[in-house]
Structures are given as structure tokens and as C-alpha cells.
Amino acid sequence: MLIGIDDTDSPEGMCTTYLGAVLARRLIREGMKIREARLVRLNPNVTWKTRGNAAIALHVDGNADHAFDSACATVEELADFSCDNTNPGVVVADVQPDPAFYRKAVTDFCEIAEAVRVLDAAGAVYRGYKNRRGLIGATAAVASEFTDQTSEILVYRQPQRWGTPRRVDRASLFAAEAATFPHTWDTVDAVNDVVVCVPHTPDPVLFGVRGKSPSWVMVARQMIRSEEPQLEQIWVTNQGTDAHILTGRIGELDEGLSYRVQGVVIDAPLTTTGGHVSFTLRDGNHTVRCMAYEPTKNFRQIVRELVRGDEITAHGSYKKGSINLEKIRIIRLAEPAVPRPPVCTTCNKRMTSDGTGKGYKCKKCGMHAQEPELQKISRTLKTGWYEVPPTARRHLAKPLCRGKPEY
Ligand code: ATP
Question: Are residues 387 and 280 in the same domain?
């Protein structure tokens, strides 16, 4: 059977993955077998998410009625019901619900009634608490089919430490990344000298290591020194797979969805107050603003080097008229040139302007020329893919160390 759970945490605490890890251990104690534990990220632009819009699914062998009772009891014990925005959902399905629901939930927006229809069609048992919104994520989790997947080991704190500063040895995190990259990623951001994998929120997570397989995340995890954890769980995830990205066309983008679009840069990138960088991309008669926000740090340097005429593919979420960049591919670099007075063919001296629109004149021999010389501006930027640094990466965005997109 598949057990799905979502929407159990609040900004003050808890984490659905922790609850899932506790439930998995309880089910094992009840004699059940856990075949797989899934951490399923959904549309990152859903506004009522607490943090990273995650839901979990457990693939379990055992008695479905007992599993449903245990799942509900664990949610009732651990979920933060005091928060208005916490609306847990619990699903147990013997038959996997339609994966189309997962694809919609990771790329688009779903309604609670849609989730209920999908669950009823699959003959699932389910319980939605409070406004029942958690049923969306719980249904998407059990309906999920990954065309690509990664691993994450999540290490959870002892309950008495929740809300206190985390003790994780910084040097060991950098050493773990250095020893295992590119098989693991986003433990730290070496370029910006920032630890990425240790949260600052009051939830039970101590740290998490992401990587290509359970064995690689374990290699890195074993190098990390920290306070004594309560428990650890390796999750199969859709993180780092670009599962949220749709192929889009400028002029046909929907609010809150994430796209890759192709176009030509039509103005010089502008740095605004706060250090955000923006430029306009055009496809035919349509344009869209692209944003590299301040937290994308050194990525902005690449964006600032774009010029009018560069042809790029942009990845990111479309929000309030802008694409918030996650990565770009520079397909073709424009060859910008600046006009300057030509050299006189008789005297070999540079001419001077003869007045606006009147061309150029040689001061020595009086020779006239209409056209300027065009001087190419040399560029250091190269074609290829560029991404935001680990510190600014979204959970679902595929890091380039996993391979460049094939388009
Ligand atoms: P948690 O650790 O509790 O899962 P979170 O940051 O993942 O925290 P939630 O608290 O789960 O966020 O809130 C997200 C809410 O949005 C859930 O109720 C979930 O069912 C719902 N949701 C997720 N994806 C979609 C979607 N595509 N359309 C509509 N609602 C969604």
C-alpha cells in the first residue's frame, strides 16, 4: 500500500518528513515492511506552503486498516494543529492513484475536490483535517511517478533540542562536500562560503545531504560531526530533477507555473535597488522580464554580462510578470559593435565627425566618408549553461552537476 501525508507543520515547528520517519519506525514495530520512503516536492509557488512544499509517501507491506490508524494517530499526536495554516491530509491507497494528479501538483495548482475525486477513483481511504487542504499534497505523494530521482538523508534532532541553536561542525560539512561532489551537492556553497544544508527554522531537521544515491549521501553524512541526532531517514526524492519545469512560450505563461522559455535579450541588464538584476527577453511580438534577485549572488554577474541580441533559454517561475531565474543557457552571443570615425584612406589618419548625420571628414585632406567604422566589443562570456549558486537553489531545480538539460 501507499501512505501519503502532508501539511503537518507550521512556522513554529514540526516537519512532515520527520512525522513520516517516526511513522515508518512505528509501522516497522507493528510488523510491517517499508519498501520505500518518498519525499515529494510540489509546485514551489503554492502560497500556503510552510517552507518547501514537501509531502511524503511510504510504500508499505502490511495491513491497510492498521496503517491508516497508525498514520492518523501519528498525525494527531505530532502535527501542529494550533496553526491556522496547518491542515493535515492522510491517504492510504492499495492501488496507486492517477499519476496525472502528481504531475499537475508539481507543475500547477490543484483543488481539494480534485484530490478527493482521484482518491475515490482509486478506492483509497483518506482523512483530511480542518480545511482538508493537506489531502492535495498527500494524494500527489501517493500518485507520484518520478521520471528522474535523487536521494536525501535527513538527520533529525532530539525533541528536547528543538528550537535551540543547531550544533553541526562547519568544517566537516565543507569536507563532506569536497569529498563527494558531484555525487552529492548543496551541502555547502563553497563559492559564497555558506552552509546550505542546516536549516535555521525551529523544526526537527538537523541537516540534510542531497545526492545521486543512498550510498553517496551516506558517504557524505558519515563525514559530518554534530550534536547527537534522534533519528535519520534516507528519502527517494524528486528534488534536483526540474520536475516543476514546463516548456513555455513568452506571451503564453500562466502565473505561478515554472517554465523554460527561449528568447532574445532586448535591453541591457539593469541593477536595481537591493541588487536585483533584470532584463527583457523577447520572442516574436511578446516580451517578459527576467529577474536575478540579490540572493542569487554571483549568478547576477553572468546576467549583467548579457547584451542586446543574446539568444538564451531561461528557466524559472513566472510570477507577477517576471521569470525568476533558476538557470539560463546562452545559446548564441550577439557580437555588439560601437561606431567610431573611419580612418582616411589617403592620409591614414582617423577622421572626425562632420556634424550630426553628416558623416566624417579628414582634417588633413578634407576627404569625406559617410559610414562609420564598426568596432567589435570583445566579450568574455561564453555560450553554455549557468545556474544560481547552491545557497539560492530551489529544491526542485536540477543542479548542472547532475547533467545539463538536453535542449
Ligand atoms: P510540510 O512540512 O508540512 O509539508 P510545506 O512547506 O511542505 O510543509 P505545507 O504546510 O505542506 O508546506 O503546505 C502546502 C499546502 O499546499 C498543503 O496543504 C498541500 O496539500 C497544498 N498543495 C501542495 N501542492 C499544491 C498544488 N499544486 N495546488 C494546490 N495546493 C497544493
Answer: yes
